[in-house]
């Protein structure tokens, strides 16, 4: 535990996989003597990532894979709570297999806003149409987030999504809905199928209205908070002015005073 690469000393970790093969296709090419049946590959899950949670001082963590990270809101809560020093997290938001797995919704942002005050770049793949936030639940916005990358995520109701994000994102936060793997991966993996590129483009275009609405709604909320704060301060000032500076004697005390004087 005292070595340079002990979990407590690791600050950055990247897990990138570019090959466009399903896990089953990979196992078909393998031959293990004495093993009649190969065990099917499993998707990346919360259990897959759990050993990495021991890296308490991690500030950068990136996963890039064709398939979704099959996790839950509980898994995200655990991850965010164990990595308070995070500054950059990319949890496979640019996946290419966009169906067939359960996905996170917008509620996945809440644990990071609560537990990761230094986080300035966050990448998550989400189904942005199923956020079920109770009307009385308090949403604490990110304090340092400058980039929210949602990759190939989907959003159905742009206005609702923009309204929610305006409660979470700082004024200067940039919303990115696109893929970057075609610019830095190997040549064989940069060329994606036309049907897949079209699907990615449709999703990216759908986020355009959210991207346009977000800064407007963030400014409106900021102005509302400032007006509310000013009104509260004004009310507190009026309350202090209304308090009497000294108390006048009542009639009983005056009568007692005169009676004593008479004596």
Summarize the structure.
This protein is an alpha/beta fold and 263 residues long. It has helices at residues 23-28, 46-49, 73-82, 109-115, 158-168, 181-184, 187-190, 194-242, 251-262; strands spanning 12-16, 60-64, 88-91, 121-124, 147-149, 174-176.
Written overview of the protein:
The protein is globular, with a radius of gyration of 28 Å. It has a six-stranded parallel sheet, with no helix packed on it. The chain is built from nine helices and six strands, in the order βααβαβαββαβαααα. It has one domain: Leucine-rich repeat, LRR (right-handed beta-alpha superhelix), CATH 3.80.10. It is α/β, with parallel strands linked by helices.
Task: Summarize the topology.
Layout: E1 12-16, H1 23-28, H2 46-49, E2 60-64, H3 73-82, E3 88-91, H4 109-115, E4 121-124, E5 147-149, H5 158-168, E6 174-176, H6 181-184, H7 187-190, H8 194-242, H9 251-262
Parallel strand pairs: 1-2, 2-3, 3-4, 4-5, 5-6
What's the main sheet like? Answer: 6 strands, parallel
The strands making up the biggest β-sheet line up spatially as: 1-2-3-4-5-6
CATH topology (fold) name: Leucine-rich repeat, LRR (right-handed beta-alpha superhelix)
Rg, Å, rounded: 28 Å
Number of domains: 1
Helix content: 40-55%
Strand-pairing-aware structural class: alpha/beta
The top level CATH class name: Alpha Beta
Shape: globular
Could you give the distance between the termini? 91 Å
Low-pLDDT regions: 256-263
Arithmetic mean of pLDDT: 78
- H and E order: EHHEHEHEEHEHHHH
Number of helices: 9
Strand content: 5-15%
CATH architecture: Alpha-Beta Horseshoe
């Amino acid at each position: 535990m005292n070595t340079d690469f002990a979990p407590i000393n690791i600050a950055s970790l990247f897990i990138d996989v570019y090959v466009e093969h399903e896990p089953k296709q990979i196992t078909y090419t393998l031959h293990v003597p004495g093993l009649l049946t190969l065990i099917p590959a499993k998707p990346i899950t919360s259990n897959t990532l759990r050993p990495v949670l021991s890296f308490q001082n991690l500030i950068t963590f990136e996963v890039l894979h064709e398939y979704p990270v099959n996790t839950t809101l509980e898994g995200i809560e655990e991850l965010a709570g164990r990595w308070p020093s995070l500054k950059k997290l990319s949890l496979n938001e640019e996946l290419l297999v966009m169906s067939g797995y359960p996905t996170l919704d917008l509620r996945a942002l809440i644990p990071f806003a609560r537990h990761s005050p230094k986080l300035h770049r966050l990448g998550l793949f989400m189904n942005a149409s199923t956020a079920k936030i109770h009307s009385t639940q308090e949403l604490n916005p990110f304090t340092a987030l400058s980039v929210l990358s949602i990759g190939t995520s989907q959003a159905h109701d742009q206005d609702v999504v923009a309204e929610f994000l305006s409660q979470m994102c700082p004024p200067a936060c940039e919303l990115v809905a696109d893929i970057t793997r075609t610019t830095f991966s190997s040549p064989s993996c940069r060329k994606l199928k036309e049907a897949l590129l079209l699907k990615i483009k449709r999703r990216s275009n759908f986020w355009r209205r959210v991207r346009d609405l977000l800064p407007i709604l963030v400014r409106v909320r900021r102005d509302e908070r400032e007006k509310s704060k000013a009104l509260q301060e004004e009310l507190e000032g009026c309350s202090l002015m209304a308090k009497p500076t000294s108390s006048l004697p009542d009639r009983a005390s005056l009568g007692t005073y005169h009676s004593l004087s008479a004596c």
